[in-house]
Amino acid sequence: MNESNLRKIWFITRPERDPSFHEEALKALFKSTNNFTIKWAGNRQAHKDYEQALIDIGIKRNSISDSGSGGRTWASLLKTFSYCYTDTNGFLIPTKVSNEILNGNNIFENIKKQILTLQIPNSYFLEKGFKPKYDSNFAILPVRFLIKLCINSQLSYHLTKEEITFIVMTAQRETDLENIVSKVQSFRNMSTEDKNDYKTMVSSEYEHRERSDKGSRDFYAAHSDVAHTFMLIAEYTGLVQYDRGINAKISVPLYNLSSVISDLEYYDTRYPFNNRYLFSLERMAEVNGLDINSYKASRYGDIKPATNSYKKLKKAEKLLNQYPNPSTLSNDKIIEILSSSSFSIAESKKISEYIKSNTIMETLDENFVNGVLNEPNNLEFEKKIGRILEQLGFDVLMHPKVDGERTEIDILLKYNDNLCGIIDAKNYKEKFTLSSSLASHMISEYISNYINYDNYDLKFFGYVTCSDIGGISNISKISAKSSNNEILGIMINAKTLLSLLDYCISNDIPPQNRVELFLKLIDNSSYTSFTQILDKI
């Protein structure tokens, strides 16, 4: 996409700005889709039915669009806040928080949580149908970012709608906070003429619209309504006040400052930025759509940033992020990894004890995820895939040797005391196609050599790819020619394998049960999305 057409400023779908009506919007969708059992994608009648349900419940004016566009816009609002998402089969899937709200449980707190965990990008903004796309540099929780600016004494604990429109909404990352503070301070000290020049510059640099009305609708008219919506939803959380009028602003009263700071710290600890969009929009939506009683946290628990303990843990993390979930490593393994670097044995033991004793929920390490998906070295890619499979409960052997043979499979997986599988890891950045020659190699070199490795009977073979998959029909051919279909195969990309592990970690599935889930997928099929997996496990 042309860089000039990318979104460089915040946006939010807003058929209804007031979050008080999220509950009714969900109830109407529940009713019109018969408890989410009616296919949504491409179904204009379903979209119109949703519009009618919104009218019936009293939150939409009495008018139904010919194409059902009104229904799609309202559904987009719900997807923006991770109340639901569209699966690969075209159905809307409600998340846990939706089910809680529909059941009447903790409605305000759950809606507040969805507002404060709203992020750019999210699963809806990354859907194919959402255009224009955001600049890839975006990684921000906009409502929290707004409120953090409002607790800053340098800004006198407030922001105006004009400042939000022309300055704050250009922020792309949490690290932009101090820069935005500086820009707002400078803007407040400008003359009227200088302010107009600044606004003209922002309008030119950040406008992405290519509409026929672009000339008549200036930047402020187009984007101040988005700012107004963010101010409204921030107000709903109870953390800021919204003073409407010509000089509209949001502010944090001094008497409430310590409480707001405490709330933000709580959310930053419990709900960090979710980067699961790197491997699965479905998993991202599921996690962002957790209700307030479903715990999600970083491994640092109550340790606050900037303390020595925190800094040492962050340093240790850089060494441990070569593993999917460091908290599952043994004490001895963690000590071995850390002490081989600059940590003393005593420090390594202390950090290991903390990681092992911490009772917070385990999470998939985001640095590891980035490492897997962007690994340039083929050997390192193989090692990382091996570590994922180890976390899925297999006993992993890397490049196991067979006497008298020069060819080695990348990964051998032992399980159930006497069974095994073999995996060929393919670090093709664009697409891996299983050709006839590679299929022949799997039959003649790998399956025949590992048919009974170390008294473990071979039961499956597979390919884990970095990106897209082709040549799928050759899986069944390998199975038929090598074993008369007794040894089955699988093709799966790294994103989907990570999605499976993330699902297992989030649902506290023990290692022995994780193996069984993986084995359910082995039926000469290929997998490139989490939804395909979920259909079988």
UniProtKB/TrEMBL annotation:
MF-aspect GO terms: endonuclease activity
Source organism, top-level taxon: Bacteria
Organism: Clostridium tarantellae
Alphabetic keyword roster: Endonuclease, Hydrolase, Nuclease
Protein name per its UniProtKB record: Restriction endonuclease
InterPro entries referenced in this protein's UniProt entry, alphabetically: Restrct_endonuc-II-like
